[in-house]
């Protein structure tokens, strides 16, 4: 039995990835800050799904996630998908409240690293995988996306170094592209014109099913390579 821990699994890309893996027979552990939405998602996904409500920036919650993965028999895949935009409306760097970046980095950078550290012994034992969800904002100079993009760039560098340090694991950092999500809408973009997250999830699931080499991937490229 293969087990995946997916943060931010109550909606959007995380939920779509959880549903796809559940259909393939995986045991799933998902989290989200809203308990009602999280448990509704778990019921919708079906199969063997454990829902653990909480904030990934909270060390006690991360410990609970690690225990849930261990209780499921061990972990094969960690998906660091939970994230925050930070300051909204997205400001130019000249107006970026620096203190707001503390929360952005806590959720988008420090929490993924701490969760990796917590589950790494189990992943090593099972020659598992880590999938970190990043963004094109990590590598492009989009106006007003500086704070969010800086956090995602840091997550990409963590991923790159982790891949070098843990050659027996598969470590992927992936840009899903624009998706029809509440986060894109909160950023002031036309979310209704974007494709549903299920399309990006279908592409990213190829990383897992084919266990592609560690590295950076774009969902658009993976979909085009099918």
UniProtKB/TrEMBL annotation:
Q: Which UniProt keywords apply?
A: Oxidoreductase
One of this protein's Pfam families, by short name? adh_short
- SUPFAM superfamilies the UniProt entry points to: NAD(P)-binding Rossmann-fold domains (SSF51735)
Task: Write down the PANTHER family for this protein, in alphabetical order.
Answer: DEHYDROGENASE/REDUCTASE SDR FAMILY MEMBER 7B, DEHYDROGENASE_REDUCTASE SDR FAMILY MEMBER 7B
In which family does this protein belong, per the annotation? Belongs to the short-chain dehydrogenases/reductases (SDR) family.
Would you tell me the protein name for this molecule? SDR family NAD(P)-dependent oxidoreductase
Which species is listed as the source?
Actinomadura graeca
């Amino acid at each position: 039995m293969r087990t995946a821990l997916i943060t931010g699994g109550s909606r959007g890309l995380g939920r779509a990835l959880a549903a796809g893996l559940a259909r393939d027979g995986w045991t799933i552990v998902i989290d989200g800050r809203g308990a009602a939405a999280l448990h509704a998602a778990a019921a919708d996904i079906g199969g063997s799904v454990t829902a653990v409500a909480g904030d990934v920036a909270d060390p006690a919650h991360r410990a609970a996630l690690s225990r849930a993965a261990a209780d499921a028999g061990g972990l094969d895949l960690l998906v660091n998908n939970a994230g925050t935009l930070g300051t909204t409306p997205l400001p130019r760097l000249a107006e970026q409240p620096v203190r707001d970046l503390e929360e952005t980095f806590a959720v988008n950078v420090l929490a993924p690293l701490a969760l990796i550290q917590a589950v790494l012994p189990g992943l090593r034992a099972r020659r598992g995988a880590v999938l970190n969800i990043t963004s094109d904002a990590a590598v492009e100079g989009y106006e007003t996306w500086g704070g969010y993009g800086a956090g995602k760039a840091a997550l990409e560098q963590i991923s790159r170094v982790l891949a070098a340090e843990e050659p027996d694991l598969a470590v992927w950092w992936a840009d899903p592209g624009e998706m029809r999500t509440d986060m894109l809408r909160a950023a002031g973009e036309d979310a209704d014109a974007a494709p549903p997250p299920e399309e990006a999830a279908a592409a990213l699931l190829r990383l897992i099913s084919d266990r592609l080499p560690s590295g950076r991937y774009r969902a658009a490229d993976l979909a085009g390579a099918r």
